[in-house]
Amino acid sequence: TLKECMSIVSRCRSREGPYKPIAAAPGGGMTLDRIPEILDVLGRDIMLLVGGSVFARSPDLEDNSRAFVSSTGRNAIEAQQSVLLKDSNGTKGTKGTNGTNGHHHQPPPTSEQLEQIRKLRMLKYPEVHGNHGKFLEFKKGFGGSGVMGKEDSSHWLNIALENYKPEIDNPSWKGVNRTELIGRRDESPKFHVRYFEIQPGGHSSLEKHEHEHVVICFKGEGTCRVGSRVWKMSFGDVCYTSPWDVHQFSCGDDKQDSFAFFCIVNAQRDKPVLVDEGGVEINQTSSCG
Q1: Which residues are part of the catalytic machinery?
Q2: What's the distance, Cα to Cα, between the start and end of the chain in Å?
Q3: Which of 66, 88, 117, 207 is the most exposed place for a label (fewest CB within 10 A)?
């Protein structure tokens, strides 16, 4: 357990008793993506035993070793200088940048190192494409570049953000994006799971279709219009749209944050039909459901 690991490291550092302090060496099933977390919890005066994860990263062992060093927050040049100092001085310790033996302050990871760590974390999970078990990691703080269609641009690791519908100049909707989570990458469920986010002042199309779907609010506040009824939605609220219900989701101009929700829908479904405010069909079929 984490508590046991911290206790072992603490005892290794202790000067109590007849034994001298030693360097703790955590190992066994260690992966590169966990190194920043391990150093943060156990401290930097430890030895890291990482084997399989270094070999599994890529066929280039030298590049993998650089990634290993980079993930600790140190750069390869500093590591090499440390080794040279050790060899030339013939000492068991290394010299810090301040000219003293022992520890020295480590600068925070650079943006390049953080990007390397992000890529390492992506190796932790199975390929997002394919009909196999998979895990989509949600980025803390709703991270993501927001660049439509780009890899890793959504709130989920290695998942692209998309426009609500391909026709971005279609006046039937405004300020909406979507993230396809499950169903579009060769999985075989009878349902699809999508995530939609509507910016303040935005709205989805006013439409209807034969297939049904379930909407679960995940973030912010908005309204859902189903038939002649309008409900306010906030975190945890659920809305069910039955076949041929005229419906629309929107986020008010006065809101400070976006309105976001999960939408679970049939895998096999018809295309939505746009309608006007009176529910009369517009001679236009929407491209996405």
Answers
A1: 263
A2: 46
A3: 88
